[in-house]
Amino acid sequence: MAGLVAAARARELGLDVAVHEKGTRVGGSMLLSSCVIWRHREWDDFRGECPTGDARLQRVVWERLDDAIAWLESLGAPVVWDETGNPRTAGKRFDPRGLASVLADAAGDITMSSDGTDGEGATILCTGGFQGDADLVAEHIAPAAPLRLRANPWSRGDGLRRGLRDGAGASPGLHEFYGRNMPDADFRDDEFVSGAQLYGRFARVFNERGDEFFEGEVSWSENDLVQATAHQPNARAWYVLDDAALDHRVRERTVADMVAAASTAVDPARLPFAAPPGARVAVRVSPGITHTIGGIHVDERARVLRPDGSPVEGLYAAGADAGGIAAGGYASGLAAALVLGLVAAETASGAI
């Protein structure tokens, strides 16, 4: 998302653009997502949900997103829903394949299966984070077991490594990630959305030892529960549900619908610990990592910053490479990618 947006906007502003794509197709993990691009309706909710994130960057995303979505629509990006379906948030849902196609056309020539370049002129890092590199995940996030990838396979920390090589500082939230608890079984990339077990707040949640490990209320996004699961023995958990839990709805599906689609659902009598009274079904889950939250430190103009706060000349970052926006919580990664992709192109062109 960020790279295609930056390239399309830079071409609009009259710049010569060379796009280097590591993968064998365009669209990154955006192509595999539900493609809802959103912001919190209220600024205070954004700050409250992501309290350790960079407030300057959060403000840029929050203030510019509506216009950025309108810019996507002006390019012909196909809208599926005109709202998010969540009263806490504002935004739109796009068709991911249609959006990727529109942005790729606007971005111009794209070199596929590329390892990047140190070419002349400004460079905008948009490699999508480091969730695809098991060593970096183990170093910075340090889960109890390797996390399964719920993202494209090419986001392996190239942007982070390039930024650090050139003197960049790291952002807040380097130990955090966004993901979903998935059934503890193999899943395909077309099951990233449909297979997500997004009902932990209605369940009783146990680790493999039978301990209820999550303290307090699970957030509406459940990203806090996913990150907590990553630090449990073997990075696994059991969602144990009673009749009332199964009747809850999450968007267009009931919890019972999601459980029925989970291949790891079992009778509570088969749990490795004593089931709580009233339990009707249990689902074994493990975290799938979608994108990292920490990364390179940037300012509100998407300029890569050194640890002393000075900019690295000619180097910018957007998307998951620009870390720290959602630190401490959860916010739309696609919204940050869209807005900072635009900002990076405009800064590089001298427009802002």
List the secondary-structure elements in sequence, H or E. Answer: HEEHHEEHEEHEHEEHEHEEHEEEEH
CATH architecture of the largest domain: 3-Layer(bba) Sandwich
Question: In total, how many domains does the architecture comprise?
Answer: 2
CATH topology of the largest domain: FAD/NAD(P)-binding domain
What is the radius of gyration computed over CA atoms, rounded to a whole number of angstroms?
20 Å
Keywords:
FAD/NAD(P)-binding domain; 352 residues; 16 strands; 28% helix; globular; alpha+beta; 6-stranded mixed beta sheet; 19% strand; 3-stranded antiparallel beta sheet; single chain
How would you describe this structure to a colleague?
The protein is an alpha+beta fold and 352 residues long. It folds into two domains: 2-176 and 293-349, FAD/NAD(P)-binding domain (3-Layer(bba) Sandwich); 186-288, no CATH class. The protein is built from ten helices and 16 strands. Strands 7, 8, 9, 10, 13 and 14 form a six-stranded mixed beta sheet that branches. A hairpin with a 2-residue loop joins strand 11 (249-250) and strand 12 (253-254). Helix 1 (2-12) crosses helix 4, helix 1 runs parallel beside helix 10 and helix 3 packs across helix 10 (333-349). The model has no long low-confidence stretch (mean pLDDT 95).
How are the secondary structure elements laid out?
Layout lengths: L1 H11 L6 E2 L15 E5 L2 H7 L5 H20 L4 E3 L7 E6 L1 H12 L2 E2 L11 E3 L8 H7 L7 E2 L8 H8 L11 E7 L20 E3 L16 H7 L7 E5 L1 H5 L1 E2 L2 E2 H6 L4 E2 L14 E12 L10 E3 L5 E7 L15 H17 L3
Parallel strand pairs: 1-5, 6-16, 7-14
Antiparallel strand pairs: 2-4, 3-4, 8-14, 9-10, 10-14, 11-12, 13-14, 15-16
